């Protein structure tokens, strides 16, 4: 057996991953660092004996790394995909108390852009892949480790390109685990004690970025005008921004609310008159959970005009839409009623929603792994209001979950750390997560 375990090196690996500036601006010309980071990951895997595949997903520098660890030779089970993206959203160093690409370890935290999204899980997966290879571990099924590009811009030059152009890379895979799941939510119980619930992502809202365009006759700003493209778009944007979509209870959200109600005594039933108010008693994660009760459409960009005294011929806006499973047609109908006949809409990015059930052997393995290291813990399903690379893998019929286990301090505003200033992850949480993830992979 090796003298070095995954927990011995995982903190350093996460820190080193953060030091690679893999900022994804959304523009291929200015996105950087993915190739350098991916090749470093490949080197860490090859160092312990893996044969890796480095694949560029449609553009130079969009680096992805794959490595497989064989299961029993007589196994007829499908492979398990463990996926982590290496890109991060940009960060402005002047806004941070530490440099966002320092990977600093201080005050019990690993600091830097990507610490929770998602170089913590990338580091855990890398550390465990290295330990398993060094120790000669044969997992109960084949494990496929994938370190990917471009997730932060929707995966067009990452997971979605790979699925569409290199599906053989995913041959034999039937299930997958990725980010934004497995973290703890501490809730207060009626008897004064607390309970840690570990949220496993079983569903994601659809991601759809919509462009609105209005065109009208250009003219001088001092004249009377009965049509104005800026006015048309502004009014459409205002109507959308003030609109509240209907409350819709999906299976994942319904199960989550039922589990939390049972533990806390709060009335979080679908017909509760103050459901959304009660959610905020759960703390900072209420912002994420509340967004899974209904569709959202948030205006994010406006573009029009080139001079103060010229009425432009065209005005545009961009709206970030997140749609619940099964709601796409109804959502588009509501949007069309809001924007009116003089504004045209088109999808810039359109990724489907996803939902699976909270059952089966893999879910049992997650719960057993949590209980092994937190006997008072409990796994519960939930829906992510954002999106992950799971949307791409689902196209291949792969059943996807979010499970990157972390035991978090109750007072930590975890939701605010995603894409936030001073992003950081507790060292103890990473060590806990690595132990849980090892148990999970050994029994998955």
Sum this structure up briefly.
With 444 residues, the chain is α+β, with helices and mostly antiparallel strands.
Task: Kindly describe this structure.
- It is a single chain.
- The chain folds into two domains: 6-186 and 354-442, Aminopeptidase; 205-351, Alpha-Beta Plaits (2-Layer Sandwich), CATH 3.30.70.
- It is built from 13 helices and 19 strands.
- It has helices at residues 6-19, 34-47, 119-135, 159-165, 229-242, 251-264, 275-279, 286-290, 328-339, 361-373, 390-393, 414-417, 427-442; strands spanning 52-56, 63-69, 79-85, 105-106, 109-111, 143-148, 173-178, 183-188, 194-204, 206-215, 219-220, 296-304, 310-311, 314-323, 344-351, 354-355, 377-384, 399-402, 424-426.
- The strands form five sheets. Strands 1-2-6-3-7-18 form a six-stranded mixed sheet, with helices on one face. Strands 8, 9, 16 and 17 form a four-stranded mixed sheet that branches. It has a four-stranded antiparallel sheet with strand order 12-14-10-15, covered by helices on one side.
- The chain starts with 5 loop residues before the first helix and ends with a helix.
- The mean pLDDT is 95.
């Amino acid at each position: 057996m090796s003298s070095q375990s995954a927990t011995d090196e995982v903190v350093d690996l996460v820190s080193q991953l953060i030091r690679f500036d893999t900022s994804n601006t959304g523009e291929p010309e200015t996105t950087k660092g993915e190739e350098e980071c991916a090749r470093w990951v490949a080197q860490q895997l090859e160092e312990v004996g893996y044969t890796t595949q480095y694949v560029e997903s449609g553009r130079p520098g969009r680096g992805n790394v794959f490595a497989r660890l064989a299961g029993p030779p007589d196994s007829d089970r499908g492979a398990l995909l463990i996926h982590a993206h290496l890109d991060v959203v940009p960060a402005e160093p002047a806004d941070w108390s530490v440099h966002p690409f320092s990977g600093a370890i201080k005050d019990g935290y690993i600091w830097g852009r990507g610490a929770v999204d998602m170089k913590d899980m990338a580091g855990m997966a890398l550390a465990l892949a290295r330990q398993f290879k060094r120790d000669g571990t044969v997992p109960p099924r084949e494990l496929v480790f994938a370190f990917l590009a471009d997730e932060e811009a929707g995966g067009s030059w990452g997971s979605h390109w790979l699925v569409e152009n290199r599906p053989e890379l995913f041959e034999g895979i039937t299930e997958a685990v990725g980010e934004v799941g497995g973290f703890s939510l501490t809730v207060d119980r009626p008897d004064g004690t607390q309970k840690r619930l570990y949220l496993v992502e079983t569903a994601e809202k659809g991601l759809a970025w919509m462009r609105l365009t209005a065109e009208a006759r250009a003219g001088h700003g001092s004249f009377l005008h009965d049509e104005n493209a800026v006015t048309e778009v502004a009014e459409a944007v205002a109507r959308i921004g003030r609109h509240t979509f209907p409350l819709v209870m999906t299976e994942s959200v319904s199960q989550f609310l039922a589990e939390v109600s049972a533990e806390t005594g709060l009335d979080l039933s679908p017909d509760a008159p103050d459901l959304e108010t009660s959610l905020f008693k759960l703390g900072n994660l209420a912002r994420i959970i509340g967004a899974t009760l209904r569709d959202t459409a948030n205006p994010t960009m406006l573009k029009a005009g080139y001079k103060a005294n010229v009425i432009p011929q065209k005005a545009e806006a961009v709206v970030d839409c997140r749609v619940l499973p099964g709601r796409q047609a109804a959502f588009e109908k509501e949007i069309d009623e809001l924007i009116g006949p003089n504004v045209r809409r088109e999808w810039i990015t359109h990724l489907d929603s996803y939902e699976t059930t909270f059952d089966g052997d893999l879910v049992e393995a997650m719960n057993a792994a949590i209980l092994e290291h937190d006997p008072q813990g409990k796994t519960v399903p939930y829906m992510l209001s954002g999106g992950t690379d799971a949307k791409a893998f689902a196209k291949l019929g792969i059943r996807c979950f979010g499970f990157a286990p972390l035991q978090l301090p109750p007072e930590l505003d975890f939701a605010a750390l995603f894409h936030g200033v001073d992003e950081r992850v507790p060292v103890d949480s990473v060590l806990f997560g690595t132990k849980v993830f090892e148990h999970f992979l050994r029994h998955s």
